[in-house]
Design brief:
The complex is a heterodimer.
Chain A lengths: L7 H25 L15 E2 L5 H4 L7 H14 L16 H7 L3 E2 L8
Parallel strand pairs in A: 1-2
Chain B lengths: L13 H18 L4 H17 L4 H24 L6 H6 L8 E15 L2 E13 L2 E4 L3 E7 L3 H10 L6 E7 L14 H7 L4 E5 L5 E5 L6 H19 L2 H12 L7 H9 L10 H16 L5 H18 L4 H18 L6 H15 L7 H28 L15 H11 L2 H10 L18 H32 L1 E2 L3 H26 L3 H20 L2 H5 L5 E2 L9 H19 L23 H19 L11 E5 L8 E4 L5 E4 L25 H12 L4 E7 L4 H13 L1 E7 L7 H12 L3 E4 L5 E4 L2 E7 L17 E6 L2 E5 L5 H10 L7 E3 L11 H7 L3 E4 L12 H9 L3 E4 H4 L2 E5 L5 E4 L3
Parallel strand pairs in B: 4-6, 12-13, 13-14, 14-15, 19-20, 20-21, 21-22
Antiparallel strand pairs in B: 1-2, 1-5, 2-3, 2-4, 5-7, 8-9, 10-11, 10-23, 11-12, 16-17, 17-18, 18-19, 23-24
The chains are: A mainly alpha, B alpha/beta.
Amino acid sequence: MNLSFSTWPKIVVFAALLVAVQVIAACGDRGDAARPSRVTTTPAPNAIDINRASADELMLLPGIGQTIAGRIIEFRQKNGLFRRPEELLLVPGISEKKFREIRTLVKTDPAPHDD
Amino acid sequence: MTEPQPKRIFAPYPLAMLAASFAGGVLFAHWFPASPIVSASLLIVCCAAAFIGRCSAAGSLFIIIAFFVLGASCLSLENAGIRGDRLRVLIDSGSLPSGEPVEIEGHVVGAPESMPDGVLITVAEEKIIHRGQSQTVSGNARLFVSVADERAAADLENLDLQHGSRIAAACNLVREDEYINPGVPSRIELLDREGIDATAMVKSPLLIEKLGDPTGLSPFRWIYGLRRSLIEEIRARFSPSTAGVLTASMLGSKYFLDKNTADVFREGGTFHVLVISGLHITFIGGLLLLIVSGFTKKRSIRFAIVCSLLWSYTLAVGANPPVVRASVMFTILLFSRVVYRQGSLLNALGLCILLLLAWRPSDVFNTSFQLTVVSVAAIVSTAFPLIEKLRAIGAWMPTASTPFPPNVAGWLRRFCEMLYWQPVAWRLEVSRQIWTARIFKSPFLRRIAGRFSQALLARVVEGLIVSLIAQVWMLPLIVIYFHRMTPVSVVMNLWVGAVMAGESISAIMGLAVSHFSGFLGAPFIVVAEFLNYLVASAPHGFVTSNWASWRVPNYSSSASLIYVFYCLPVGGLAVALWRWNAFALVRQKIVLPGIRNRFGLDKTIAVAAAAVAAVALIIVAHPFSAPRSDERLHVDFLDVGQGDSALVTFPNGQTMLVDGGGRLEFRSDDEAGEEVFEPDRQGVGEAVVSPVLWQKGYSHIDHILATHADADHIQGLTDVAKNFSVGEALFGRMPAADPEFQELAAVLRDRGIRSGYVSRGQQLKFGGATVEVLYPRADRATDAPSDNNHSVILRIVYGSRAFLLTGDVEREGENELVTGGGNLLADVIKVPHHGSRTSSTQEFVDSVGARYAVISVGRHSRFGHPHREVVDRWRATGATVITTGERGMVSVSTDGSDLNIFTYEK
């Protein structure tokens, strides 16, 4: 290439410096950002244990009808006990929205042990 | 150029030779697998033989053979090295059924990859819990975590997933092919090549539980964090199209590309600039080298700095194999400079291939590996030497080694002089010598204003040569893998390459400056946006015109030998160009005498180039690719997942595609007004139906027919109409207001394909076969509904055999057919509505009396298709039920009396 080698590096070094500053700034931003504290959900005292509840008990939950209650029990029988209430989301028909509504009303107690 | 060329021209390139032999060994072992013991003992024998004969030619021969055997043993070792607790082994052996809910534990590998509607996480598995049983596993799973709304996004943010985080996730692990058809690449194979054993769709971040944070400081996390914040910033500051192009080309995240932008690149044959590859690494490496040369003259320090920066970049963009490959190649080339080897590039390429294949021998079968190697080999072995030679011709001045002017045709000499002749250098030379001379240079030269435009012109011509030669070498691969010919890409590559370089530099500057002052940064951002317009929007009309880019079917079975045959003239041309000595006083003897030397080129080159052009024409114009009519009626039920598509080939060779598959997506009305981001994702028509037709060798389809306007039937036809020359499109109804129909109608209008109606009572004749249209009644109103119960129903009769294609017709339509008194008898039926219980009433099933009932349905139907009672109903009448979900493509053919049925998956 016939470009002059005396001017090019200056331009490029300038660009590189800018990028470096940018990099440091960006990383600083990340570090400073206050991390939101973890949301912990405590189940209500009369929460339903989804590993033991019968279909009728499950149907007491808002938005859970006969079909879904049946699916929950079928899922439990087929795939073993729920380890966390969140696993209800694996049951077909329980959307994220529906789960959030019943999140505090269900529990898995005691959590099944590994092995 | 005084020394005679060595006879064995590849003798100075031992590594290239060894790499070729190693790759040959890997290929051999793939087709003829041998046990590791056999290959190991062979290897020892070869090494011993090579050692004994080390001083003779036989010794070299044995070394080459030894590398061949080594390649073979490496592949068998790689296959034997898969552990028994590997996820893919567990699923393939059936001990862990695909698609069952499981809980997996493991740690995150690499950075979570943001996507518009979720995030992609790769997890190295440690433990899996299935039905309450826990077991240890190895292998990688790729989880797509859906992020539906802000709350889900906040949940994901809370998890703070990083490289190394230990997580547990509840999901349905899947390892299966979506569509099983000849000519459609297997999804499992593609994932295996990336080292992914299974995938899962995780409904919500709530299903992921974090077990622990990574310990210690890791540069990886820092780099990944940086990349993520850069992606976010680019998306915040630039328009969606520009942000998509920038994140793809600089940060290796292809998920923010929108379909329109991506299509412009694809149709222009320049999509590779959006995938970080050799081009980027070379560009970035070159730029770094330029910067570093400003600081130090020590080669080893330069090498260390450039390589560490380059490898950080490689890691940051996810260290995908193609990027790693390019970085390895660049490092080797740079290292050869450090140890003062003005090493030939071909040798360095050989070393690189050897290293990469020793690392992962199965990469030989990888599309991206093949494309990289072939394009680099083309450039290094043919394009660069050719450019060197043209430069020598153009810059010739009398010296002791080249006392005579180049012995080439006048036009070529003048052309080269126009590019490379430098009067200044000549004046300097004359002033130094004791002799004087007058030489006559090109008259074209005066037209060129100054040195700058001459240099620019030379670069453009060099770029065109590189681009053209790479295209010629890659032609078979491009036709086989992409079914696309883009002559325009030779030019577009230069344009896009130059503008993209400018775009990324001004985008980086814009981002950096905006950090201090948005006002000062704005001009850079505007420039980047403008440059993006120049590459991504402005060429739209240009690249989508019919001559710029067209689709090509491939030759299959024994005709595919043409691709191997194509390599011969290409190799011949490369060798001829290599041996061409423009300063030789006597033209070399040629193989084929009597060919007139019209262009004044070396005759071998001319012959080889003509042969390349001839075979390329046979490949591109594909006159022999389509199957010849065999006087049989064929019906192929394609596996398009949840959807319908059947290709009918009539005894006279005419073709009719009934439905084209598609994905059912629910369009929300509230977003209709604003421009919705459409991710760059292939539809079923492009990903499945078109490749099946190309694989069969078709580029023309006589009729396409949409039974009704549901997406899973009509959507794929849009792609077919774009990719193929279509004789006529047939419809039962043309619902002008239906969005899916509108899309197809727009393509039909653009491409000048005429549309026609079919309705009850019509009979169409194709050779000896008759197509009876049984349904629906004619209704040419534009607001006539085109739903399931208005599906077009065809009965195709040939000799004593009949096929019934029923679309999605439901009970109501079936009753009308049964009571209508027409003949419904058929040997093979495509079961209505994917085997749903809305259809296949007992009366209907009885009146068809089919021998084979084919159900076109996905492996896991969202609607639970096929319904059990429907399957039982068909079985009860004695029919054999075959689903495309289980068996892949189902092909039935008849000569009018026999009936052959063949399924792609046994």
